[in-house]
Design a protein that fits this description.
Blueprint: E1 2-5, E2 8-13, E3 16-22, E4 25-36, E5 46-53, E6 56-65, E7 68-77, E8 82-91, E9 94-96, E10 98-106, E11 114-119, E12 124-128, E13 139-149, E14 152-159, E15 163-166, E16 175-180, E17 189-191, E18 196-207, E19 218-223, E20 226-231, H1 233-241, H2 244-247, E21 253-259, H3 265-275, E22 281-288, H4 294-308, E23 314-319, H5 338-348, E24 353-361, H6 362-367, E25 377-381, H7 391-396, H8 401-412, E26 416-421, H9 456-469, E27 474-481, H10 497-506, E28 512-518, E29 522-527, E30 531-535, E31 542-544
Parallel strand pairs: 20-21, 20-27, 21-22, 22-23, 23-24, 24-25, 25-26, 26-27
Antiparallel strand pairs: 1-2, 2-3, 3-4, 4-10, 5-6, 6-7, 7-8, 8-18, 9-17, 10-16, 11-12, 11-13, 13-14, 13-15, 14-18, 15-16, 19-28, 28-29, 29-30, 30-31
């Protein structure tokens, strides 16, 4: 629902505010009261007693988890400025990783711009929003942030606890996120039965010097990368029975997922059998144990690989413990130095291109940057549903992709750059013990099965991602698996719309391309022999011309 009052306008949806604008300028991307479970899953509230009046919205939100509840009375007043207040009370001992406000600042026109930071002790300083993506929190112990955008000075005051900011571009979100309760405090934590606490976010603004709002479109040119599909041993066995399935997309590369904590010679042989049926470059994604003698472990992997008959073009090595994220304030898990890991891998596989990085996402790579001198290439994945799974937010993540690739380039230098599995749904959760089940096919954060992947939305998002990568120097991208909820078809061989798009893009690997992305309007890839355009507003049409 679009709500306007004077120069102020915003979208109100499910208790949250999005796209808070002054005139035509989006000054705050969102304000929401969020509650996370112990796996960082976002709890969906039951909203009752909702009243929408000319200058005020009120409702009650009930968050339930493990037999307890958090009941929150909310009032959003926008008669003069904007005030979002919340009074919470627990019913039962309520376990959570975070409960409270999140404020999102946009990145277009904001990255690298001036901001005044006020801390909880009343002191203030002038700083800048990070231009490159910060691995840790750029601002902590926050009480207020004042920034300038589109001819406005906007002050955002946060009450009820200490807040801090993280550079949410790391996860693909097109925002800087200021959130309640510092990560250095213990989590999960319990809110005692009947305990009460209040929080508030208050916006005020005034006209500043006139500045034209930045143009939202981005354009770039470059060479289109090779396309890989990630594949498991189970999928390889199925593809051997149905060799025509891979011919549907004809990927140049197959990324063979191999987890040394669970897999062995049988899985490598499954990939080898497929190699005899389908000709492509076979890359091994090796999740290594790294819990003992590294030389012995990697020589064992080399022996198994030789025995399997699988000929690999490259091996990307990731220690098993690095599949899980290490948040700020947490102790790093035991792991040998990456220089030692890569040295042992290079010794075992002297004639194979060696890669490192993360099988998860950019935050993990950014926080544990590999010694790139030991590597031939660096890789990480993407997932657009870490924090917000709404249609609008997923498409917004395309704005952050150039920021991610530029930030990665800043520390990997001239090393080859690959984008690992970057599917709409999450194959593995670095932030909790599991991905979130989604039996009802909802818009759900951190789920391994997002129904939009299988429809026109998935095709539109994939074109947008492809366009956003142009100019980054990424040489290989992995936008899908072969079968199932993150594949190009289901297990019976019924293809999804993404298959048609990837077939066109795969056929143009190595070709010159120009790309343009206008957020929430369209994305376009222009090759010498074809144009691929997708609608980023309604997701219902992807045109090939």
């Amino acid at each position: 629902m679009k709500i306007s009052h004077g120069a102020l306008s915003f979208d109100y949806e499910d208790g949250a505010l999005r796209q808070i604008c002054l005139g035509e300028t989006e000054v705050i991307r969102g304000i929401a009261y969020l509650v996370r479970d112990r796996d960082w899953g976002t709890l969906v509230p039951q909203i009752t007693r909702e009243r929408i009046e000319p200058t005020q919205i009120s409702y009650q939100a009930r968050f339930e988890s493990q037999g307890a509840a958090l009941v929150v009375a909310v009032v959003i007043d926008f008669a003069d400025g904007l005030s979002f207040t919340a009074k919470a009370q627990a019913e039962g001992a309520f376990e959570t990783n975070r409960a409270g406000f999140t404020v999102l600042h946009p990145i277009t026109g904001v990255a690298g711009a001036k901001v005044t930071v006020e801390h909880c002790d009343g002191s203030s300083r002038t700083a800048e929003f990070p231009r490159l993506i910060e691995p840790w929190q750029p601002f902590q112990d926050l009480r207020a942030l004042t920034h300038w955008l589109g001819g406005w000075q906007i002050a955002c005051r946060m009450e009820g606890d200490a807040f801090e900011m993280e550079d949410q571009r790391q996860w693909g979100d097109a925002s800087y996120k200021t959130y309640v309760r510092p990560l250095a405090r213990p989590w999960p934590y319990q809110i005692a039965d009947r305990a009460r606490f209040d929080q508030a976010v208050r916006l005020s603004w005034q006209v500043a010097e006139t500045v034209a709002p930045p143009l939202p479109s981005t354009s770039a040119s470059g060479v289109f990368p090779q396309t890989a599909l990630v594949i498991t041993a189970e999928e390889a066995r199925r593809a051997v029975e149905r060799p025509g399935d891979l011919e549907l997309v004809k990927p140049q590369r197959l990324l063979c997922h191999f987890d040394a904590t669970r897999h062995g010679l049988a899985e490598l042989r499954a990939f080898s059998v497929l190699q005899a049926v389908y000709d492509a470059a076979y890359d091994l994604e090796l999740i290594a144990r790294c819990d003992g003698d590294l030389d012995a472990e990697f020589s064992g992997h080399a022996k198994n690989l030789a025995a399997s008959g699988l000929r690999v073009a490259s091996i990307m090595v990731c220690p098993s413990v690095d599949r899980q994220s290490t948040p700020p304030g947490s102790a790093w898990p035991p792991c040998p130095p990456l220089t030692d890991v890569y040295k042992a891998a290079r010794k075992a596989f002297p004639d194979v291109s060696l890669g490192g990085g993360m099988v998860s996402f950019f935050p993990e790579l950014n926080r544990k940057r590999p010694p790139v001198a030991s590597l031939d290439f660096v890789s990480h994945g993407l997932c657009p549903i870490v924090h917000d799974a709404s249609d609008h937010a997923v498409i917004q993540t395309l704005e952050s992709v150039p920021h991610i690739t530029a930030s990665a380039r800043a520390f990997i230098g001239e090393r080859r750059y690959r984008l690992g599995p970057s599917t709409l749904a999450m194959r593995q959760n670095p932030y909790g013990a599991r991905t979130i089940p989604n039996p009802e096919g909802a818009r759900l954060c951190m789920t391994d099965d997002d129904p939009r992947h299988r429809g026109d939305f998935g095709a539109a998002y994939t074109v947008g991602l492809a366009a956003a990568l142009v100019g980054s120097g990424v040489q290989v991208w992995t936008p899908a698996g072969l079968y199932g909820p993150r594949g190009v078809m289901d297990w019976t061989g019924q293809s999804y719309p993404i298959a048609r798009i990837l077939a066109e893009l795969t056929a143009r690997a190595g070709a010159e391309v120009e790309a343009e992305v206008v957020p929430h309007v369209f994305a376009r890839l222009s090759f010498a022999d074809a144009k691929i355009t997708t609608n980023l507003a309604s997701y219902v049409r992807t045109e090939l011309a």
